[in-house]
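Structure (tokenized):
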């Protein structure tokens, strides 16, 4: 038999097509809930670093859409890890896999309840990884998740990851939303 995961997950792919709306460009790729099905998916789709500019992968708990407006997301926020251009070839794919393994492996213990999903954005100005949580006021849970992410990704630099509320990201002027927490 296959080894069941604690949660069911849906992988989404975003490809920017100006002829369609943002939401229409989010496509469900596959749904999985066993370790074996995760690995077979992971091994047969393009790696994040092979995607073209403007594309995203999103891995969210089944039933949660990878967008601010989903009821499970709209009071939440995201831990944001911004990479510089040269990290695409050296670290992006390893970081993305590690983030996925934290999610499906429930690495955040009791704070795993707050996890909604994770996103990787492939962008010319620098790729981004984010982990979305359900409640931007749950400081303890958010800090536990941030600490664990830094530890698992081996990120040493203080202040290198920031937590933004989706409400701030939605309204951001320019490219930087103000952040609520950092580790
Ligand atoms: C339901 N809905 C429309 C909607 N719902 C959403 O949840 C949502 C959007 N729209 N997003 C749109 O993409 C632009 C780029 O953000 P980016 O995160 O790709 O980052 P870049 O600026 O391309 O680096 C955002 O400015 C926003 O327009 C982003 N986003 C998450």
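Design, position by position:
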């Amino acid at each position: 038999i296959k080894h069941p995961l604690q949660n069911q997950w849906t992988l989404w792919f975003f490809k920017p097509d100006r002829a369609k709306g943002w939401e229409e460009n989010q496509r469900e790729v596959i749904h999985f809930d066993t370790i074996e099905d995760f690995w077979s998916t992971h091994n047969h789709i393009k790696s994040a670093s092979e995607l073209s500019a403007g594309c995203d992968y999103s891995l969210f708990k089944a039933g949660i859409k990878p967008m601010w407006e989903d009821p499970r997301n709209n009071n939440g926020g995201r831990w944001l890890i911004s990479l510089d251009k040269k990290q695409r070839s050296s670290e992006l794919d390893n970081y993305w896999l590690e983030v996925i393994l934290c999610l499906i492996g429930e690495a955040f213990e009791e704070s795993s309840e707050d996890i909604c999903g994770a996103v990787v954005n492939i962008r010319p100005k620098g790729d981004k990884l984010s982990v979305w949580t359900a409640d931007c006021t749950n400081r303890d849970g958010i800090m536990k998740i941030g600490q664990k992410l830094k530890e698992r990704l081996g990120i040493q630099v203080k202040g290198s990851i920031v937590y933004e509320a989706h409400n701030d990201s939605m309204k951001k002027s320019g490219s930087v939303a103000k952040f609520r927490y950092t580790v």
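Reviewer-requested clarification: The mean pLDDT is 95. The chain has four helices and eight strands.
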